[in-house]
Structures are given as C-alpha cells and as structure tokens.
Amino acid sequence: MFEYAPAPESRSIVDIKPSYGLFVNGEWVDSEVRDKTVNPANEEVLAEVAWATESEVDGAVRAARAAYENVWSKMPGRERAKYLFRIARIIQERGRELAVLESLDNGKPIRESRDVDVPLVAAHFFYYAGWADKLGYAGFGDDPRPLGVAGQVIPWNFPLLMLAWKIAPALACGNTVVLKPAETTPLTALVFAEICQEAELPPGVVNIVTGAGETGHALVSHPGVDKVAFTGSTEVGRAIARAVAGTRKKLTLELGGKAANIVFEDAPIDQAVEGIVNGIFFNQGHVCCAGSRLLVQESMYDEVLAALKRRMALLRVGDPLDKNTDIGAINSAAQLERIRTLSEIGSEEGASRWSPPCELPDRGFWFAPTIFTGVTQAHRIAREEIFGPVLSVLTFRTPAEAVEKANNTPYGLSAGVWTDKGSRILWMADRLRAGVVWANTFNKFDPTSPFGGYKESGYGREGGRHGLEAYLDV
Amino acid sequence: MTATATSAALADIGRSDATLRAFLHGLPGVDQVGAEQRAAMLATRSIKTTAKAWAIDLAIRMVDLTTLEGADTPGKVRALSAKARRPDPADPSCPAVAALCVYPSMVPVAAPELAGSGVHLASVATAFPSGQAPLDVKLADTKAAVAAGADEIDMVINRGAFLAGRYQEVYDEIVAVKDACGGAHLKVILETGELATYDNVRRASWLAMLAGGDFVKTSTGKVPVAATLPVTLVMLEAVRDFRAASGRQVGVKPAGGIRTTKDAIKYLVVVNETAGEDWLHPDWFRFGASTLLNDLLMQRTKLKTGRYSGPDYFTVD
C-alpha cells in the first residue's frame, strides 16, 4: 500500500489577529465585536469580527462617495491601472499566506486555494488593470463613465476570488466600493484590506464591512449606493432585487445553479470521469456552477458509473491544509445541515445513495462525497441546489432529450458537454440555456471569459470585456 | 465495450485488419487537455517522510538499469551488472534493481555476472531502436538474446506499419516475437514519441496487449520525446481496462528522461491512483533509466542520515 504520509502546509505564515474591526476610508475602525469566525475543519475559533451596523455602513458608503468624487473618478485610467497592477503583484507575493488563510477560514483544500483560487485572484486584478486605460475601446463609447459607489455582497464559497471578481472591474472602471464578505469567511477580505494599504490605494476607494444579513441589507438599500452586485443564493438575490426595485441603482446578480454535466457515449471516458468529479467535488461542491446533475447517455451508463465509483474511492477527504487532500470541510454547521437534509430527502424519495468508504474527522463539519443513482427529474435532489458534494445521476437517450432535461430547471448558470464530436458540441451549446457551456472540461475559469446566468441564476456578466458593462454608465 | 468483452472475444480481434481496426478505433478517445491536466494534478501530490522512503526503495527495485550505447563494452556491462546487484555498496539494506537492460551482443557478458542474483537480464531486440529490419532478422535477434540468457526481451513495434494503419502487420509481428521469446517476458516498446497522439498510445497499448505482450513500454530513449507522465497515465488506464476485460495483468514501463527521485515518485503516484496498488510491484511497473538510480540512492541516504552527501559517494559506472 502506498500510504501518503501527512504533508501539512505550515500555517505559521499567517498572522491572524484576535479581532478585526471594519476597514473604512483606508483605516481600521473599531466596532463592536459580535461574531467569531471558525475553522470549519476543527471548529477552532480563528478570530472575532464585527457586524457592521447601519450607521457604520453609512460611514463606509460616505467614505466611498468622497473617494469617488474627490480622487478615483478624476484619476486617469492609466493611474488607476498602476494601483491594480500593484495589488495584483502583492497578491502574488503574499499568495501562500492568502492560500493558507483561505483554507483555514473556508475549509477548502490547500491544493485548490493554492493552485486555483489565489492565482485566479491575481489574474483577475492583472486583467482588469489592463482595461483601466482602454475603456474607450471596450465598445461602450469613447469615454464611458463609472457609476459611482458600488455596494458588493459576496458569498463564502470562494471568498477572495469573489472579492476579486467584484472589486477588480469596479475599480478599473473608476468606481469605489463597499464590500461585505460572508460572515463565515471574512478573513481573506480583511487581509485584502491590508493589501490595499500596502499598495497605498487612496483611502475610501475600497471599504470592507463585515457582518451578516443585516449588514448586507443596510448596504444594498443604502441610498448612497449607485450599483449593487451580489453573488449568493437565489432567495437572497430575490430579496435584494426587491430592495433595489424602483431606485436608480444598477443591479447584477449571480445566483444559484443546478448544472447538467452531459456525457455522451462517444465521450473520452477517463477524462469525462475526471470532469464529473471536478464538476461536483471541487470545493466540496460549494460552487454555484457545480455540475450537480450528471446526465449520462443510457448506453454508457454502466461503464461511466463503474469508472466514477472507482475514481471516487480515490478521493482523499480530510485536513484542508494537507497538500494531498482532495476534499476539505463543509463551510459551516448550517450548510452541513442543509446538505444532510436534502440527502435524506433523496433517499426518502427513492434514489439510491452511494459513498466510497472514507473516514471523516470527528470534529468539524464533514460530508462524504456522495452520488445518488436512479434519480429522475421529479426528485427534489434533481431540482434544488444542494451546494455540497452530492451528485444526482440521471440518464438520457438522445441529444434532444439531453437538452430538454438539462434545460428543465429554473436555473441556468452552466452546463458541461462531453463528446468527441465537435459538431455535437456546437449543436448542444446553441441549445443549452446556460451562461457557460464547458466542452470536454468543467469548472474552468479565466478572467477573460464572461460568467453569469440565465433565468433564476441571475443576470449580468462578470469577467471579460462583458464584465465592464456592469460597472459603467451605459 | 471493454467490460462486456470476454477474453475469447478479445483473442478473436487479431484475426484480421478489419476486426483490429474496428476494435482499436472503437476504444474511447483520450482528451489531450484532460489527460495532461490529470497527470499535472497528480504531480502535485506531496510525498514526504515514511511515504517517501517507501517509494524510493520501491523505485530502486523497479529500475531497469540500462546501457544502450554503440560504445558499450564488456567492461562497462560488467561494471553495471555489479551496480545492479548492489546499487549502494555502503549500505547492504539497499535493494537490488529489477533488471539490467543491454544490447543482445552484451547478453553473454552480463548473464554470468547476474546469475543467481535475482536481477533479471533484459535485452532489447528486433532491430532496436528503429525496428526497420525484415521479420526473420528480428526473430533471429530475439532468439539469440534469449539463447544467451536474457529472460526479458524489449522489442520495438513497427511504427511505420502502425501509423499507416496496417495493424495486422504490427500484431502479427508481436505475436511472432512473443513466440520467439519462449519463456522470456516480452516488453513491447510503443515509441510513444513517434505515435504523437494519446489516441494512438491507447490503441497501440491495446494492440500490444491483445498480441500477447507482457509489458507495454513507452520509449527506446533514442528519439527526442521519451516517457512523459500523461503518456504513462494513458498506458496505465489501458492496462487497467485490459485486465478488467481479459483478466490478464500487463505491466508498464516508462523509459527515457526520468532522471530524478522527484520524477520517479510522481510516476508511482500516477500508478497508485490510476491502475492501483496491484501495479506497485517490480513485476508490473519498471523504470527504464540509467542516471535515475544514483539520484534515488542519494535521496535514500539523505532520508536515512538527514544530510546530503556529494555525488562522489555513489558509484559512477
């Protein structure tokens, strides 16, 4: 037996303060500490954080407004770019620290925070830095104007990456921001605030207010905010849309998903299985575009399922800081509860549940990688977003049926197509109602590529040239 | 397809060009990007302390210590034979390598040196490395090596015929060489650097296995592109699927370009997470290498003593 010895990444590189205030106008502001953020892998308390009140949010919005009026909107694009490039470089320099901190606070494996999250964060800042002085060539007029103050609320699944998706284009276009990280994963956003200081970003251009739903509500409904950007659940997205309705605020929403990963009989099977695994078990399935519905052509069902089970038995679940861990901890007790509940409903509704043998740690929040077979479109686990390492397996007979089933969901964020036939990829991509269609790959992100949803998965695009539109007055 | 094929049906595939073509072209394709991504991900596995010590000893036991030069002499081959038996003279706990791999003309020199040591004697044959010789010459080459004491034969396939789609010709040649081997183990060199695509690598692996090869081997080491991690991954998938279909286990030997312990461990990780632990044995996985061995020995000593000793503390042969 080739037993991999523990290979933990050292956490000595991170220096977590016992408590954090709010980052407003380039300074740390003391605030009443009201919450603890824990390491979901062992429930150890990492730090205490504030929940910003309405008046504290107001202060942050005012700071952002002043920075917008006096400094940032007047600064030439090429000067704004210098700050963004500087931030991108500091992120690279502090990459290991950010990766370790992200894994500690979120529970995701260090392999992913190190090889996916942090490099993409830096890439996003580099990419939008490049746009800052070229906005006149982006197709939105000769001299497109920024919107003003952006109020941004981000989720806990990719804390720093979602921050980058929000802040980089906003700043490149000349807006200032007030950003609220998720209450369970505020730490990398707070280190990002330090990075803004290190980069000597003018005060007030980036403000970070920690807190939960109330803080988020105060931010998005603040009359001084010109633009609201939210990534998170469809339920909260609806509430935000209602709060913003009838105001001048521009809104972009990136919400849930229930993506179909469609495997045709002529697919490259070994790579398709990798794509299925990556599609649903990447980041413990805490991915809005996760391929949580596997649609397999019935003629290949047995082969694909056998290969998938064989591959799942190799997944290494455990300490997120171990460099060989494939699946880390579920982010919170509440999320774990939701995954458990929906999985139990899956069993009750008659689907068969399977997990590879795997030992889960005693402390912390854990859920074994799980697949449900015998799932039909009528099952709740085929319709509702579970947001965990749980895959529903369905079958189809013809390409038309695959499209029909894939589109038969209130969501429309992403889809995957696996086939060796190029013409079929194009045929499918034309018909799938999803913002992203991956062909022979899954969960691939790049700052140059726009990302966003159809239907209840939200509206607006992030990334690429399209991502500029959300932060320009066009 | 593979899961439903029986070994009898598999044996029937080689009866004509048409059946071979239908079968080989019916194998699932390999997505290049995906295969390379998987290999790259496995290469990030961090193998430390006890796992590393275990892997280094296993890797030493899997080395086919190789010398395939025009300048090979009896003296050189004798020196390498001694090295194969006792890689680290300073440490009796260090295991011997799996085999010594030489040209057929050197087999008579190496055979007495290795007799009784448990180290196998492998010989390349069949007009290595190009394979561009008439079949009867290739068979004579093989028989001579076996007669002189080689118990493993590393043959090259006819890449020209394979790339031209004359699968039957390649198949028949492997069958004939296997027959000429008698009791010797047959390793079939695909020369993956010349096959160029992973689809071809998968097809050639199946072809070699269907024809009776005991091992599939990546490369001769004589063309610019030798063993790579993704090529080895694709071959390991093939042997895994072939065993599932036929019940017969076939070994894999990457050769050429693997020079460091770090590289070797990456290969072992790929074996472990692709074909599985059944292949983590010198009977089923080999490294065709010459300089790799000293790096393994150096890292082995480093792990044991906690410090690096210079290259002069390991024999140069």
From TrEMBL, chain A:
Pfam families: Aldedh
Residue span, Aldehyde dehydrogenase domain: 28-473
Record bears the keyword NADP: no
Active site: E254
Signal peptide interval: none
InterPro entries reported in the protein's UniProt record: Ald_DH/histidinol_DH (IPR016161), Ald_DH_C (IPR016163), Ald_DH_CS_GLU (IPR029510), Ald_DH_N (IPR016162), Aldehyde_DH_dom (IPR015590)
Domain of life of the source: Bacteria
PROSITE patterns assigned to the protein according to its UniProt record, in alphabetical order: ALDEHYDE_DEHYDR_GLU
Family according to the record: Belongs to the aldehyde dehydrogenase family.
UniProt-recorded name of the protein: Aldehyde dehydrogenase family protein
Organism: Phytohabitans maris
Automatic annotation (TrEMBL), chain B:
InterPro entries found in the cross-reference section: Aldolase_TIM, DeoC, DeoC/FbaB/LacD_aldolase
Keyword Lyase carried by entry: yes
Key word Lyase present: yes
One Gene Ontology term of the molecular function aspect: deoxyribose-phosphate aldolase activity
Alphabetical keyword list: Lyase, Schiff base
Family: Belongs to the DeoC/FbaB aldolase family. DeoC type 2 subfamily.
Name used for this protein in its record: Deoxyribose-phosphate aldolase
Organism: Phytohabitans maris
Top-level taxonomy: Bacteria, Bacillati, Actinomycetota, Actinomycetes, Micromonosporales
